[in-house]
Amino acid sequence: MNCKMPSDPQFSTHYQKHLKCLKLNGLQPKTVEAYSRALRRIGNYFDGEIADLSPDELLDYFHDLLESRSWSAVKLDLYGLKFFYTHVLNKPWQDIPLVKPPKTSRIPDILSVEQLNALLAATTTISYKVFFFTAYSMGLRLGEGINLKVGDIDRTTMRVHVRNAKGNKDRLVPITDYTLHVLRSFWQMHRHPQFIFPNRKRGLKKAHLAETPLDRGGIQVAMKTVVEELGIKKQISCHSLRHAFATHLLEAGVDLVELQQILGHVSILTTARYTHLTTKTKNNAYQAINTLVHSVDIQWGGWK
What we know:
Blueprint: H1 9-24, H2 29-45, H3 55-68, H4 71-88, H5 113-122, H6 126-138, H7 142-146, E1 153-154, E2 159-165, E3 169-174, H8 177-190, H9 216-230, H10 239-251, H11 256-263, H12 268-272, H13 279-294
Antiparallel strand pairs: 1-2, 2-3
Helix pairs in contact: 1-2, 1-4, 2-4, 6-8, 6-10
């Protein structure tokens, strides 16, 4: 299913209003793009006539979509269409009972400290090397690291202001002396007045002239390339650096509530998932259970 703009004039009018409503609702750029792409895809499927779709037509669409796309695409198109009906057409939305993406709870693969060091050593492009290190050392999401600016770093409080993160929320995260030293040394290589990680299309020496930050796709390709070169069989992405940071901090004894604030999780239940990934936590639990059970005397004598 392609995502080109249908030629129907009425669809074009609806689509432009859809874009305005998405932006005025304060949604993240990624969500705006996903919901607008969803409407283009649905519009192509129905030749632009999407203002009065029946449940059976929607079932056909999502069935065909799932043949070529993942459940993630189904969810995004479903949410995008729901937004269109409720905010653009001002029509009541009725959930489609048979379209229910499965609930999943997956445990991410975690890089060990040794694997992390190997990954950094194998990354030869300095921009990507420093980016990977920074994302790990502060537990940043990919977009958060890309958008870091010089003014976000407070050397007095040793905190970094992470702006417009997931859920349109800001947070403060601690920065270590070593991370600050690495970022200062890296900045001296490009001296961009605004970006910590400027786009390197013109090379690092001319990166101070860049108008945009480091390219998201380039970072992801660099990570994939290094992981393959090292022969790491785990499913590792840039987000894995954040997972590793959280897991390693828990293993070091950092309080769960403190970790929640550093990572910017709304619910502590999200942070608590990492307790399942720590070897130290499992060992501590085993030792505690072992001590507890050994304190109980079942009195072997006097069996009947």
